[in-house]
């Protein structure tokens, strides 16, 4: 199981739009952070699956009884 940053075009565009403000705040030692959406990915049945949120994971898990058992009580 791993978490990966969302590095989509939309994310990069949003980062670019924040850059000027980020630089000003950084210059003032305000420790700005640009936060990215996290995605959960894992390998199942030889294929890597990636999920942007718990809802998408829940939808997928309903098709995999063994995975339902593994994740019981966590989602």
Automatic annotation (TrEMBL):
It comes from the Eukaryota. InterPro entries: L1_C, L1_dsRBD, Transposase_22. Pfam families: Tnp_22_dsRBD (PF17490). Residues 10-72 form the L1 transposable element dsRBD-like domain. This is L1 transposable element dsRBD-like domain-containing protein.
């Amino acid at each position: 199981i791993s978490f990966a940053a969302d590095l989509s075009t939309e994310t990069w565009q949003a980062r670019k739009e924040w850059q000027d403000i980020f630089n000003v705040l950084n210059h003032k030692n305000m420790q700005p952070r640009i936060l990215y959406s996290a995605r959960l990915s894992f390998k199942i049945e030889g294929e890597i699956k990636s999920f942007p949120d718990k809802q998408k994971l829940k939808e997928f898990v309903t098709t995999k009884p063994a995975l339902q058992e593994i994740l019981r009580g966590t989602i």
